Amino acid sequence: MRSRFIGRLGPADAVTVGNAALGFLAVVAVTVDVGLAARLVLLGAIADGLDGVVARKYGGTEAGPYLDSLADVATFGVAPAFLVAVVSLREWGSPATLASGLSAEGLLALAGVAVPALYVAAAVTRLGLYTAYDSDSDETVGVPTTLAATIFGAIVLTGYRGAGIPLAGFHDAGFLLALAAVLTPLMLCDVVYPDLHAQDALVMGVVQAGAILLPGLYGRGFAFGLLYLALAYLVLGPVLYWRR
């Protein structure tokens, strides 16, 4: 018996569903290797761009926008948030330490769970609103979840955590937690971001692939390049990114 769902899905939907699976794999990988989890998130970002290319070539389906947002929740919402929570709990211990008093580490551990939870809530809200109002537009309101997750993945792959070097006065967990705290409200802000043009999305995909696949210093160099591109779009995109 043929499933009633298979006949309603197109090639682009298959890529989108694959993105959701990558999100789950990234969550599992966080418990083993944070670097691997970051690579899987970035691979999901490539898949997120690829499904649009496939849809334009072979046609999309009515389910496509909904599947896309659901997949993005897994890969760009839950996976980065879980990464922050796991790194925070490894650094500061369980929030249960609050039971023995309001220690600094206990409060940080609690924040290490609460902030990622708010990050997921913001991602779900933003993606739901995007599906309802912006999916047919060439611009979107608020920082895209794909961009936020790309920043997380690129930062991890720059190698800072392996070197154990503090960034901006924070150690690994504190820096990632602060980043999540900043990106959470930005996903719900009123700033308008234009969609990337095809050639720019291709460049971003090539840099992402280099960060994912290349070993050692080469991969780290691509990770820094990806981070700079993502931060440039985050800060300058709403103002300077050209539109046609």
Task: Name the strands of the widest sheet in spatial order.
Answer: 1-2
Helix proportion of residues, in percent? over 70%
Ends distance: 48 Å
Q: Which sheet architecture does the biggest sheet show? A: 2 strands, antiparallel
Mean pLDDT reading: 85
Shape: globular
**Which structural class is indicated by helix and strand composition?**
mainly alpha
Number of helices: 9
Bin the strand percentage.
under 5%
Low-confidence stretches: 161-170
Number of strands: 2
Radius of gyration: 18 Å
Element order: H for helix, E for strand: HHHHEHHHEHH
Number of domains: 1
Write the layout of secondary structure elements.
Elements: H1 11-30, H2 34-58, H3 64-92, H4 104-134, E1 139-141, H5 145-157, H6 160-163, H7 172-186, E2 192-194, H8 198-213, H9 216-240
Antiparallel strand pairs: 1-2
Report on the structure:
This protein is an all-alpha fold and 244 residues long. The protein has one domain. The chain is built from 9 helices and 2 strands. A two-stranded antiparallel ribbon has the order 1-2. α1 packs antiparallel against α2 and α4 packs parallel to α7. The longest helix is centred in the middle third of the chain and has 31 residues. The termini are far apart. About 4% of the residues have low confidence.
